[in-house]
Amino acid sequence: MYKKIIIFIVMFFLINGCVNYKSKVLQTKLQNEQIYILLEEGNYKKALEEIDKIIKIRNNKDLNLIIIKSYILYTMEKYDESMSLLKKNVKKDLKDVAIHNKLLYCKMLIETGQMRKSMEIIEDILKEDRDNIIALYYKGIIFKNLGLLSDSLDCFSKVTSYTNIINKSIKEKDELAKTLSK
Questions:
Q1: Cβ atoms 53, 35 nearer than 8 A
Q2: pLDDT tens digit string along 72-112?
Q3: pLDDT class for 54, splitting at 50, 70, 90?
Q4: Per-residue pLDDT, 8
Q5: How far is CA 99 from CA 1, 26, 122, in A?
Q6: Distance of alpha carbon 87 from alpha carbon 105, whole angstroms
Q7: Does pTM surpass 0.70?
Q8: What is the phi/psi pair of residue 88, to 5°?
Q9: Given 3.40.190.120, 3.40.50.1970, 3.20.20.220, 1.25.40.10, which CATH number is that of 1-91?
Q10: CB of 82 closer than 8 Å to CB of 70
Q11: Which of 98, 138, 110 is nearest to 122 (CA)?
Q12: Does residue 142 sit in helix, strand or coil?
């Protein structure tokens, strides 16, 4: 009898804990969606408030949110605050950071003249995704800023070739849509 009561109590707490965890995960996903909507609307101040809520829930451990917050501050022309936040939180290891957030980080580094640090991150991105057009573009910008114009031209040529393929694909899609609509 006591075993059944103990099992019931343990199961109750386990289930209750799982429900609370799932509830927090769902709440965080909804907050992330809300942040992107606020950013699209240009409501940076409110987006920062929402990010701060999530960071508080996660105990400042989500580097993706730190980078997004920094980028918003940067967009709001709060450059010192943005770069200070990055220096405080971004250490060597970016393995758990999404590629698009690494690219945001690189953009800020490039714009603040930190070419070598940005190149390290770009190289890591290209190891993971060698055809990433944005990373190739930033690599071209970095090479240009470092005076390596031939290397820069190579990068921009690759980006242009991908862009041509995309434009051809759009044209084919439009032609197929016309054909199918007849």
A1: no
A2: 888 888 878 877 877 777 765 666 677 777 888 888 889 88
A3: confident
A4: 41
A5: 54, 23, 10
A6: 11
A7: no
A8: -70, -35
A9: 1.25.40.10
A10: yes
A11: 138
A12: helix
